[in-house]
Specification:
The longest helix is centred in the last third of the chain and has 18 residues. The strands form 2 sheets. An 8-stranded parallel beta sheet has the order 1-9-8-6-5-4-3-2. Helix content is about 45%, strand content about 15%. The radius of gyration is 18 Å and the shape is globular. It is built from 16 helices and 11 strands. It is an alpha/beta fold. The protein has 2 domains: about 220 residues, TIM Barrel, CATH 3.20.20.70; about 70 residues, no CATH class.
Length: about 325
């Protein structure tokens, strides 16, 4: 059986799988590969502070139908980046995370793009619905990168119940067909995945970062502000970032005040470590799904596996 629902119809896709717009990892090659395999690829527009990168990556995507994601609180400082993307590229969708989407919704929808809003709380889900979201992504704390504290299987059904007229997508800890099937049993109509696609051939991640994701277990991640402090990139509370544990986290977890005091010197060393691919110091952004990831295949193979497994499991329950 094919998985067809409101999400696939709303986004015009074959499979209910979305690529998380991971900053600097979800580049044009990966976004295109996900879209060409039947999902929806989203470029990692991140902090909206590198328009040249977005332009270059859009070119790499070729004729693929893709979208773009932004960190909303940062986009508010640089709204012209959204205007450029909407006017120059006519994206299939814009995904906004971590902030109020309402100021940007009219421009996005007026340009003919779908508005995808990622939320971490029930209150945020209601705000996204009021802003006119076409799709809501319920992100559990299991997700890699920035998020909050509610686990997916607690948050997801609440969002589904509160927003019955809007397709809801699950994010956080999902890397296989079992995760897609389980999310759909809780009312989701699809999934958004980051860590699973980070460990793909097309992702713009360092080979050693991908290797560490494959070798890691779920319990080897941690959610904290340590890496944000090291990058001198303070996020608004209550957001923290989930990364793989390494020597740097063991040195500074619980010593965040000391890290802030030494921030200037630490930031310099940290930036150098990122540049040379030293992931004993630099962070590998990854979620709890890493414990389910054991290889680095092409993106299309990831999607084929997940859909085949989910279809089989859902069929068994009919």
């Amino acid at each position: 059986m094919a998985i067809r629902n409101r999400l696939t119809e709303t986004l015009g896709i074959e499979h209910p799988i979305l690529l998380a717009p991971m900053d600097l990892v979800s580049g044009g090659r990966l976004a295109a590969a996900v879209s060409q395999a039947g999902g929806l690829g989203l470029l990692g527009g991140g902090y909206a502070n590198d328009g040249d990168w977005v332009e270059d990556e859009w070119d790499k995507a070729g004729n693929a139908r893709i979208g773009c994601g932004f960190i909303t609180w940062s986009l508010a400082k640089r709204p012209e980046q959204l205007d450029t993307v909407l006017s120059a590229h006519r994206p299939a969708a814009i995904m906004l995370s971590f902030g109020d989407p309402a100021p940007f919704a009219p421009a996005i929808k007026g340009a003919g793009a779908r508005l995808i809003c990622q939320v971490q709380t029930l209150t945020q889900a209601r705000e996204a619905a009021a802003a006119g979201a076409d799709v809501i992504v319920a992100q559990g704390t299991e997700a890699g990168g920035h998020g909050q504290s509610l686990p997916l299987f607690t948050l997801l059904p609440q969002v589904v119940d509160a927003c019955p007229t809007i397709p809801v997508v699950a994010a956080g800890g999902i890397a296989d067909g079992r995760g897609l099937a389980a999310a759909m049993m809780l009312g989701a109509e699809g999934v958004l995945m980051g860590t699973r696609f980070y460990a793909s051939q097309e992702a713009d991640g360092h080979p050693d970062a991908k290797r560490r994701i494959v070798e890691a277990e779920g319990g080897q991640t941690v959610r904290s502000i340590v890496f944000d402090l090291a990058r001198r990139n303070r996020w608004p509370a209550p957001y923290t970032g989930r990364v793989l544990r390494n020597r740097f986290t063991e040195q500074w977890l619980g010593r965040e005040a000391d890290l802030e005091t030494a921030a200037e010197a630490v930031a310099k060393d940290y930036a150098a470590a990122r540049q040379r691919g030293d992931f004993d110091t630099a962070g590998v952004i990854a979620g709890e799904a890493c414990g389910l990831i054991h290889d680095i295949p092409p993106a299309h193979e990831i999607i084929e596996r997940i859909i085949a497994e989910a279809e089989r499991l859902l069929a068994q329950r009919r």
